[in-house]
Amino acid sequence: MMLEIDSLRAGYGETMVLHGFSLAVAQGEVLALLGRNGMGKTTSLRALLGLLPSRGGGRRFRGHDLAGMKPHQVAQLGIGLVPEGRQIFPTLTVEENLVATAALRAGARWSLAEVYALFPRLRERRRNLGSRLSGGEQQMLAIGRALMTNPHLLVLDEATEGLAPVIRAEIWSVLATLKREGLSILLVDKNLGAVLRLADRAVVIEKGRDVWSGTSAALAAAPELREAYLHV
User: Fold this and answer.
1) CATH code that applies to domain 1-78+183-232
2) Which residues 6+ apart lie within 8 Å of 26 measured at CB?
């Protein structure tokens, strides 16, 4: 497995959120992390990336033990994050945002030219400040910035939230292209239909524990599971 999270425990202050959460992502796989609001999805991503200290359990990525690593060290191993809320640099131009965290790796796939080919709108806006972009353009920029790190694993936290339908469709199309290229992807998103069409497998989290895992097809065919764990 490329990524393995085993019995992870984490929380904020005295409040525990993850109570032994596990998942695994294989090379070239798209895995969806699903669950209702407040069940621990974002917390699990933060703990994976070292943004939140873990209080037990294990995290391994491409053979590396992530215990004790700082976020920048985890990123340098090849995990690219598209965070919830985009979090681009508003006072930098599009192009400056893209090159700010760029990383060259052996056999690197992504460059400015490649990102602009994937998102032509970013090429058109390359001299615009991040603060002058629409929400959809900011989301494209957040994905492009993550790709510029030439990741082995792309992690997306609510990448289509709050976007117009036409922009959401463009984002899903881009993710499908990345999947066809063999990029491993771990994503959190509320658009269940689109998620299940893209993802190979899904893990469902409930109150900080993984309560179900299986293929997207199996979840799509199980309305009782979706009702029990995903519907509000």
Assistant:
1) 3.40.50.300
2) 1, 2, 184
